[in-house]
C-alpha cells in the first residue's frame, strides 16, 4: 500500500511541476490551479474507493482526477486545448472529467459540484446501489448557500455521500479567519446532523484509514459523513508560481507544511531501489503525456457547437436572437 500511495503522490507532484515549468511557453491554453502541497487529500481518500464509486471536485482538480484513475495523456492534452483532451479541449484544467473511472466532474464555479454530488448520491440510493460518492471542495465553498442546503438534504435523505473539505486556509487571497464567523467547519457539519472529523491533510495513511471507515458507514446506509483535511497551497491561487510577494501571507507559514511534505515523508518509507523504479516509470509517463499533448491536433472549428448545451446550431442561433 505504501508503494501505491507513494506512486500516486509522486505522479501528481511531478506532473504539476512539469505543468508549472511548461506554462511559461504559453502552450498550455488554460489557467491552472495547482494542488502542489495538497496532493495527499485526494490520494488518501481515493485509495479507499472502489472503481465504481464516483467523485466530484473543483477547479483545483488535477490531483483528484489522477488519484481516481484519470488518464494523464487526456489531462495534459486538455490543458493544451487539444481535441484528445478529456473534454475534447473545451474545458481546460478547471473542467476535468473521466466518467469511465468515476471522475464525474470538476467546476470553476465555487460550490456547484457539492449539489451535483448530492444528486448523484440520491440517484445511487434510489437505484439501491452500494456505490458511494465523494465530494471535494475548499474552505471557501463552505460559505456558499449550496453548502448549507446540500448538507441538510444529505442528512435528511441519508445519502451515501462523503464530504471532503480541503481546508487550505485561504479563498484566493483572504484567510479563513477574515471570512468565517465560525471557522470550525466540522462544527458546522455536525450542526446539520452528520459526524465530522478534522484530519491532517499531509498524513496520507491516516486519511486513507479514516476515509475507509467513513466509506464503510456510507455503504452500511448510515448516511453522510464529513472529513475536514487541513492542508496548505504552496503556489499562487492560480498560475504556476509563488505569490508570497503579494503580502497576504508569509512564506514562513508554509515552512511546517513543506517540512512535513507528504511526498517526501512517504518516499522515505519506500526501499531505495523500489522507489527508483516507481519514479522512473512516472517520469516516462509524464514525458509521454506531454509529447501526446504537443503532437495532438486542436479541435476542428466544426466542433464549436458540439458537446455544449445544445447539439443543434439552429437552437444556438435562436438563443442569440
Ligand atoms: C460562485 C463563485 N464565486 C466566486 C468565485 C471566484 N473564486 C474563484 S476561486 C475562489 C476561492 C475559493 O476558495 P476555496 O473554496 O477555499 O478553494 P481553494 O482555491 O482554496 O482551493 C473564489 C471566491 C467563483 N469561481 N465562483
Ligand atoms: Mg481554500
What does this structure look like?
The chain has a single domain, classed as Thiamin diphosphate (ThDP)-binding fold, Pyr/PP domains (Rossmann fold). Helix content is 43%, strand content 12%. It has helices at residues 2-23, 39-47, 62-67, 72-79, 112-126, 145-156, 185-191, 204-219, 255-259, 262-267, 272-295, 313-320, and strands at residues 54-58, 103-107, 133-138, 161-167, 170-171, 174-175, 196-200, 225-230. A six-stranded parallel sheet has the order 2-1-3-4-8-7, sandwiched between helices. Helix 4 crosses helix 11. The protein starts with a helix and ends with a helix. Magnesium ion is lined by residues 138-140, 168, 170-171.
List keywords for this structure.
321 residues; alpha/beta; Rossmann fold; 6-stranded parallel β-sheet; 12 helices; 12% strand; binds magnesium ion; THDP-binding; Dehydrogenase E1 component domain-containing protein; oxidoreductase; PDH_E1_Alpha_Subunit
Secondary-structure topology with pairs:
Blueprint: H1 2-23, H2 39-47, E1 54-58, H3 62-67, H4 72-79, E2 103-107, H5 112-126, E3 133-138, H6 145-156, E4 161-167, E5 170-171, E6 174-175, H7 185-191, E7 196-200, H8 204-219, E8 225-230, H9 255-259, H10 262-267, H11 272-295, H12 313-320
Parallel strand pairs: 1-2, 1-3, 3-4, 4-8, 7-8
Antiparallel strand pairs: 5-6
Helix pairs in contact: 1-2, 1-11, 2-8, 4-11, 5-6
The chain binds thiamine diphosphate (TPP) and magnesium ion (MG).
Query: What are the distinct ligands in this entry?
Result: thiamine diphosphate, magnesium ion
- How far apart the termini lie comes to 58 Å
Quickly give the CATH architecture: 3-Layer(aba) Sandwich
**Number of helical regions:** 12
Question: What is the arithmetic mean of pLDDT?
Answer: 96
CATH superfamily, by name, is Thiamin diphosphate (ThDP)-binding fold, Pyr/PP domains
Radius of gyration: 20 Å
Largest sheet: 6 strands, parallel
Order of helices and strands: HHEHHEHEHEEEHEHEHHHH
Share of helix, binned: 40-55%
The CATH topology is given as: Rossmann fold
Beta-strand residue percentage: 5-15%
Number of strands: 8
CATH domain class name: Alpha Beta
Amino acid at each position: 500500500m505504501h508503494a501505491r500511495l507513494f506512486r500516486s503522490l509522486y505522479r501528481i507532484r511531478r506532473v504539476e511541476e512539469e505543468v508549472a515549468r511548461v506554462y511559461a511557453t504559453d502552450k498550455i491554453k488554460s489557467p491552472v490551479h495547482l494542488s502542489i502541497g495538497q496532493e495527499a487529500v485526494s490520494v488518501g481518500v481515493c485509495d479507499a474507493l472502489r472503481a465504481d464509486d464516483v467523485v466530484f471536485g473543483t477547479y483545483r482538480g488535477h490531483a483528484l482526477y489522477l488519484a481516481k484513475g484519470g488518464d494523464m495523456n487526456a489531462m495534459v492534452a486538455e490543458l493544451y486545448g487539444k481535441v484528445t483532451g478529456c473534454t475534447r479541449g473545451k474545458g481546460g484544467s478547471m473542467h476535468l472529467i473521466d466518467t469511465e473511472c468515476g471522475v464525474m466532474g470538476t467546476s470553476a464555479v465555487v460550490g456547484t459540484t457539492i449539489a451535483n454530488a448530492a444528486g448523484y448520491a440520491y440517484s445511487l440510493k434510489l437505484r439501491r446501489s452500494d456505490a458511494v460518492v465523494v465530494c471535494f471542495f475548499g474552505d471557501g465553498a463552505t460559505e456558499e448557500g449550496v453548502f448549507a442546503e446540500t448538507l441538510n438534504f444529505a442528512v435528511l435523505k441519508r445519502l451515501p455521500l462523503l464530504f471532503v473539505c480541503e481546508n487550505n486556509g485561504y479563498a484566493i487571497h483572504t484567510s479563513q479567519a477574515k471570512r468565517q464567523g465560525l471557522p470550525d467547519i466540522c462544527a458546522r457539519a455536525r450542526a446539520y446532523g452528520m459526524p465530522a472529523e478534522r484530519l491532517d491533510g499531509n498524513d496520507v495513511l491516516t486519511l486513507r484509514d479514516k476515509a475507509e471507515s467513513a466509506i464503510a458507514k456510507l455503504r452500511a446506509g448510515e448516511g453522510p459523513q464529513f472529513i475536514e483535511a487541513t492542508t496548505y497551497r504552496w503556489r499562487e491561487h492560480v498560475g504556476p508560481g509563488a505569490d508570497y510577494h503579494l503580502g497576504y501571507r508569509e512564506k514562513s507559514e508554509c515552512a511546517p507544511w513543506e517540512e512535513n511534505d507528504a511526498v517526501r515523508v512517504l518516499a522515505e518509507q519506500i526501499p531505495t531501489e523500489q522507489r527508483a523504479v516507481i519514479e522512473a516509470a512516472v517520469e516516462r509517463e509524464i514525458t509521454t503525456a506531454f509529447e501526446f499533448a504537443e503532437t495532438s491536433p486542436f479541435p476542428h472549428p466544426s466542433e464549436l457547437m458540439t458537446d455544449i448545451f445544445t447539439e443543434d446550431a439552429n437552437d444556438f442561433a435562436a438563443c442569440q436572437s
